[in-house]
Amino acid sequence: MTGIGFELLKTDGRARRGRVSTAHGVINTPAFMPVGTAATVKAMTSDAVKSTGAEILLGNTYHLMLRPTAERVGQLGGLHRFMNWDKPILTDSGGFQVMSLSDLRTMTEEGVTFKSHLDGSKHHLTPERSIQIQHLLDSNITMCLDECTPFPATEAQAASSMRLSMRWAKRSKDAFVERPGYGLFGIVQGGVYADLRAESVAALSDIGFDGYAIGGLAVGEGQETMFTINIRNARHAHRDRPRYLMGVGRPSDLIGAVRRGVDMFDCVMPTRSGRTGQAFVRRGTINIRNARHAHDERPLDEECGCPACRNHSRAYLHHLFKAGEMLGPMLLTWHNLHYYQDLMAELRQAIEDGRFDEVAGALEARLNEGDI
Ligand SMILES: CNc1nc2cc3c(=O)[nH]c(N)nc3c(CCc3ccccc3)c2[nH]1
Ligand SMILES: [Zn+2]
């Protein structure tokens, strides 16, 4: 398979330290991938994202097909050139965003028809069209078009939804243009039902993909259920291919999922909550808008090397948010992404040193230290 390369460098229990190689560079795993929905990681320049340590970022088929359209981005040389990001890019296939963003959508065997949340115009997304859009975007890692089964769902609903996604996975694979350094990931569905999940892993393995994503989670099922499903999926899915847990998560979710063998993660929490004033720090979370930070001269996190923590006090960041200054969301986004990358770097090092349980345990204990 020309696609993308994956080297499994070290394991410590089920935790894995690996490396994914693509046409635009290498991704050290376990990896956190910042979300850059509309060709921008909101409030961050490409250089700022790079300075956090991120080695790959995510784009969205749904948003970019609506604006500025995939054809426009393709015409301008693809997403890397369009947003001046020369490292790897992964794009989602659009199914999840259609279900969570657009209204008036109809699902058929063929694909999904929906109205744009921007201007109400009508659009049609099929596996073939989604793969073509991601090719026009020049995405290094393309995701199959799938249906993220709603939660909760009965076993019968989850079964028919998963089986549709498996038929779409085959159509996605048939439409994908194989190129060295570019890959296609299948997405496991099956709701919270173990045997449906196993059926989905088997179906995807028979088709053959460069990597396997665990879909249908982080949709309200809760951490324990997510971990339980995740263990089963991780055990079944190929040892020698990357595993991507979609939509996960908070720092404690990341630590727990790395422990259970996951290699790649995405989540809007660090960026979205950063913009609202929520900072993730080694001892938990801080809502900078809270009055108690108004006179606090300490940085968000003494151990953080980001521009917010090196140059500013909590009092200043509190002021920026109260004053509605755009520098506030910029600095908190920057801090959160920097912290997430530091966390992943610490987990990679712990696996390399064979100290994952000890390091992860200490990190989890600090996250619950309380009042900060
Ligand atoms: C927040 N929780 C969450 N659960 C998800 C489940 C699925 C799923 O079952 N199928 C697909 N295709 N995507 C999912 C996503 C979106 C992840 C994403 C966002 C932005 C850019 C690139 C990728 C999810 N996100
Ligand atoms: Zn910081």
Spatial order of the strands forming the largest sheet: 4-14-13-12-11-10-6-5
Strand tally is: 16
**What is the C-alpha radius of gyration, as a whole number of Å?**
20 Å
Present as ligands are: the ligand CNc1nc2cc3c(=O)[nH]c(N)nc3c(CCc3ccccc3)c2[nH]1, zinc ion
Mean pLDDT: 96
Q: Low-confidence stretches at least 5 residues in length (pLDDT < 50)?
A: none
**Intertermini distance:** 50 Å
Q: Beta-sheet strand percentage?
A: 15-25%
Overview of this protein structure:
The mean pLDDT is 96. It is built from 15 helices and 16 strands. It is an alpha/beta fold. The strands form 4 sheets. Strands 4-14-13-12-11-10-6-5 form an 8-stranded parallel sheet. The protein has a 3-stranded antiparallel sheet with strand order 1-2-3. Strands 7-8-9 form a 3-stranded antiparallel sheet. The structure holds the ligand CNc1nc2cc3c(=O)[nH]c(N)nc3c(CCc3ccccc3)c2[nH]1 and zinc ion. Residues 300-301, 304, 306, 308-309, 335, 338-339 line the site of zinc ion.
Quick summary:
Helices cover 42% and strands 19% of the residues. It is an alpha/beta fold and 372 residues long. α9 links the parallel β12 and β13.
List the helices and strands and how they pair.
Layout: E1 5-12, E2 15-22, E3 25-29, E4 31-33, H1 46-51, E5 57-60, H2 61-66, H3 70-75, H4 79-83, E6 89-92, H5 95-101, E7 103-107, E8 112-115, E9 122-125, H6 127-136, E10 141-143, H7 155-175, E11 183-188, H8 194-207, E12 211-214, H9 223-236, E13 243-245, H10 251-259, E14 264-266, H11 269-275, E15 278-281, E16 284-287, H12 307-311, H13 314-322, H14 327-352, H15 356-367
Parallel strand pairs: 4-14, 5-6, 6-10, 10-11, 11-12, 12-13, 13-14
Antiparallel strand pairs: 1-2, 2-3, 7-8, 8-9, 15-16
The structure holds ligand OQN and zinc ion.
